[in-house]
């Protein structure tokens, strides 16, 4: 997901491009203005953290752009492409390492486990995703 700062800074295309070029297949995408309740469900595991209220305010400060990418080890590789949560330690070459400075404005969200990815896809895309084949699949997978 491109967070409100990612959308505002014109990074939707950049984020999609990075995942497309890596070989991932986009199977759902949309702009959204989530409610407070929706974001509290999304970040439910962080409810007790001191930064939680600020996180919800930040996430409601503008539209987010939600994407589902499919492919080999999508969660682990996707998280590596995002970079560490705190841009202070995000490696250059990662999205956060190239475009962010502050942990509370770190551009993007990515699911941290397959289980959470499945939950988040259901939460953000109740309408489902689209299944199709990339003609170049045999050039991406052996
Ligand atoms: P993640 O986004 O890398 O999975 P989480 O620990 O799940 O990191 O935290 C969710 C989001 O909460 C982070 O991406 C960041 O925007 C925000 N956040 C995490 N830790 C802090 C903090 O210490 N201060 C302010 N915001 C934070
Ligand atoms: Mg997380």
From TrEMBL:
Domain Nucleoside diphosphate kinase-like: start-end pairs: 1-132
The keyword Cytoplasm is assigned to this record: no
Active site positions, chain numbering: 109 (pros-phosphohistidine intermediate)
Signal peptide (UniProt feature, chain positions): none
Catalyzed reactions: a 2'-deoxyribonucleoside 5'-diphosphate + ATP = a 2'-deoxyribonucleoside 5'-triphosphate + ADP
Cofactor(s) the protein requires to work: Mg(2+)
InterPro entries xrefs: NDK-like_dom, NDK-like_dom_sf, Nucleoside_diP_kinase, Nucleoside_diP_kinase_AS
Any one GO molecular-function label of the UniProt entry: nucleoside diphosphate kinase activity
Source organism superkingdom: Eukaryota
EC number: 2.7.4.6
Class of the enzyme per the UniProt entry, highest EC level: transferase
Residues given in the record as ATP binding sites: 3, 51, 79, 85, 96, 106
SMART domains for the chain: NDK
Keyword entries, A-Z: ATP-binding, Kinase, Nucleotide-binding, Transferase
Any one Gene Ontology BP term: CTP biosynthetic process
NCBIfam families: PRK00668.1 (NF001908)
Family to which this protein belongs: Belongs to the NDK family.
Name by which UniProt lists this protein: Nucleoside diphosphate kinase
Organism: Boletus edulis BED1
